[in-house]
Design brief:
The complex is a heterodimer. In chain A, about 75% of the residues lie in helices and about 0% in strands. Chain A is mainly alpha-helical. Chain A is globular, with a radius of gyration of 19 Å. Chain B is mostly helical. The chains are: A mainly alpha, B mainly alpha.
Chain lengths: ~325, ~325
């Protein structure tokens, strides 16, 4: 029910986003173009420019949200999201390396490698008779600091135009996304979401704690490794497509939990993630128009206060 | 007495490091040449390099080091939190966003112009993080991370709107001493001096705070006053340091821990030691940054992050993170 509403809202905002921009079109015109009866110009604006942007936004929001939900439930800690445990930072460093040195065609592969490496490093450094959520987050903050300063260093080496596009990307941006990105994100979600859904039973078991999970017949280590791999992959490829769009992975699962207290599953966070990104992008494009802000500026601006609110409200940390 | 002698030795080391910072660079300059450049300026290339580049840079390193060492020590004392540091807790990010706003939106370009913005930004960040994070180490670090992310997104919004601001910003945000000029350094001196005096006066009160709220109150410590004054000193020091050199992390975290290992937890000694050790570390990191990727250079903030973050991780990994 909640996810249906969220998807409908996403579709509505997405459709509205298709009408907005330098060249405003009425919704009817957009629909006519989508059904194949537009002019060359409207086709160019709607199908080549705005639609990929909206679709990538939906895909990226879904991927980050599902990744965040997996990590938060595995660690039984709402703060263990890929933003805070260094995964997005690793993907970002690798991607900026690709942008400044190798050329942007390598971004997806680089982001995947970078995030895997940083995930492994953070996990190993946080390991000490098991991994506690808090230690994971704090180690993540430390590792993120190193990675962040190396990324900033790379930006000083590039020429100013490369630096600009890299910083745009680093803030998390949907500007200029094409159908290639749609395909990348589409495949990511098409593979990652069903895989994650299929592991839901294992996830529920692992939430009970290792001992109980083992007693109930779960193959604990294997299930956890698979879930972590899915979570890292989703966050990494979403980062490859749009940059590290901040706080979606943290906030979407939390909102889902607030809206569906009992069993939010993974579809509700997915829907809320998509809604968050598409709505934030619309805000990012319109609030200081004609200049477009990167979407990540808006998600961070909305998400960081939410994290502060979470922190202020609980005494659990 | 032993502590005083040790401190004197550290000051000696600091002087050697200062000399090193004047000599090492793209081109090695001998001590005698440095002396000549300072005392008998002839206008030769070497003299110019020393006088107009290395001296401001080294003095900037001294000022920033003193400021960061003291503000880290103060923050750890007031919050009784071993992870406190102006970088981790978002104070530097607060100063940074205000400076970027001043440069990008208001066109302020002089240090005396934007140091006030830096301190204002540092103040707001400090208050918010402290109100939300309180005493719990994890919560405080997270509140700092959240504030840094929030302010970072504001900063990138401002810098992405204007290419020339981005160009200025990207060299500044890594944390660098090479941007300091003579006038900038001269303008910063009074701020650091005021902050230093304030910080050193608070040593005894911080010792009492360390005993816990109840005992401190019983001893007659005016806790709120101490916290406010310490916060003020942190804001002045970290704000000025950020205004001179950009956000430099981990010096304020690491140095007080080293000082604590050497002289123990007494803040009347810990603060002066931090104040001498921090510029040693900062200048060494800067000199290292000039050597490792020659002929280019690695900005000091990157060196301190690469050296300091592992220390942070080591602290986090210790089984019990006892409050200080």
């Amino acid at each position: 029910m909640v996810s249906t509403v969220a998807w409908l809202l996403t579709a509505a905002i997405g459709a509205f986003a298709l009408t907005r921009g330098d060249y405003e079109l009425p919704l009817a015109e957009v629909l006519r173009t989508l059904s194949g009866h537009g002019t060359l110009i409207t086709y160019d604006v709607v199908v080549d420019n705005r639609l990929p942007r909206v679709l990538v936004g939906i895909g990226v929001g879904t991927a980050f949200a599902v990744s965040g939900a997996i990590f938060q439930r595995l660690a039984r800690n709402p703060l263990v999201s890929p933003d805070l445990i260094g995964i997005n930072a690793g993907a970002a460093l690798a991607a900026v390396l690709m942008i400044t040195v190798l050329g942007s065609g390598w971004i997806p592969l680089g982001a995947l490698t970078g995030s895997l490496l940083s995930a492994i490093v953070v996990y190993l450094l946080a390991y000490r008779n098991g991994v506690s959520g808090h230690r994971l987050v704090l180690v993540g903050i430390g590792v993120t600091a190193i990675i962040g300063s190396l990324t900033a260093y790379l930006l000083t080496l590039a020429d100013i135009y490369t630096a600009k596009s890299a910083s745009m990307w680093l803030a998390g941006s949907l500007a200029g996304r094409s159908w290639e990105h749609v395909v990348l994100v589409g495949i990511t979600v098409a593979v990652g979401l069903p895989a994650a859904m299929a592991s839901t039973r294992q996830l529920r078991l692992l939430e009970l704690g290792d001992d109980l999970a083992r007693a109930l017949g779960g193959r604990v280590e294997l299930a956890r490794a698979a879930l972590i791999a899915i979570g890292v992959g989703l966050a990494a490829l979403a980062t490859a497509a749009a940059g590290p769009v901040g706080f979606v992975a943290l906030v979407a699962p939390q909102l889902a939990r607030g809206l569906v207290p009992r069993r939010p599953g993974l579809l509700v966070p997915a829907a809320i993630g998509a809604l968050l990104v598409v709505a934030s992008d619309l805000i990012a494009r319109t609030v200081v128009a004609p200049t477009a802000l990167p979407v990540g500026v808006v998600t961070a601006f909305l998400g960081a206060p939410y994290l502060l609110f979470l922190l202020a409200r609980t005494n659990r940390f | 007495m032993k502590r005083i002698a040790g401190l004197a030795v550290c000051v000696g080391i600091l002087i050697v490091v200062v000399l090193l910072s004047l000599c090492v660079g793209n081109r090695w300059v001998g001590v005698s040449e440095v002396y000549r450049a300072l005392m008998d300026f002839s206008g030769s290339d070497t003299d110019r390099v020393v006088r107009y580049l290395r001296v401001p840079r080294t003095v900037a390193g001294l000022l920033v080091g003193v400021a960061l060492g003291l503000s880290g020590g103060l923050m750890q004392g007031v919050t009784r939190n071993p992870l406190a540091d102006p970088g981790i807790l978002g104070v530097n990010a607060g100063a940074a966003v205000a400076v970027v706003g001043a440069i990008g939106l208001l066109g302020v370009h002089s240090l005396t112009g934007y140091v006030w913005f830096a301190m204002g930004g540092a103040l707001v960040a400090t208050v918010v993080v402290y109100l939300i994070g309180g005493a719990a180490p994890v919560k405080l670090a997270l509140a700092g991370a959240a504030i840094s992310a929030l302010l970072g997104s504001l900063t990138s919004a401002v810098t992405l709107l204007d290419l020339s601001t981005l160009n200025e910003y990207r060299f500044w945000v890594v944390g660098s001493l090479s941007l300091a000029t003579g006038p900038i350094v001269a303008q910063a001196v009074p701020f650091v001096a005021v902050g230093t005096v304030l910080a050193l006066l608070l040593g005894r009160s911080l010792n009492q705070l360390a005993l816990g709220d109840d005992l401190a109150q019983a001893l007659g410590t005016r806790m709120q006053l101490v916290r406010v004054l310490a916060g003020l000193a942190v804001v002045i020091l970290a704000g000025t340091a950020t205004a001179i050199a950009g956000p430099i992390g981990f010096i304020g975290l690491a140095v007080p821990h080293v000082a604590r290992r050497i002289v123990g937890p007494d803040y009347r000694h810990l603060l002066p030691w931090s104040m001498v050790l921090a510029p040693i570390v900062l200048l060494l990191a800067d000199v290292l940054g000039r050597i490792v990727v020659r002929p280019a250079e690695l900005q000091v903030g990157i060196v301190t992050a690469v050296i300091g973050a592992p220390l942070f991780i080591a602290l986090v990994r210790r089984r019990r993170m006892a409050e200080l």
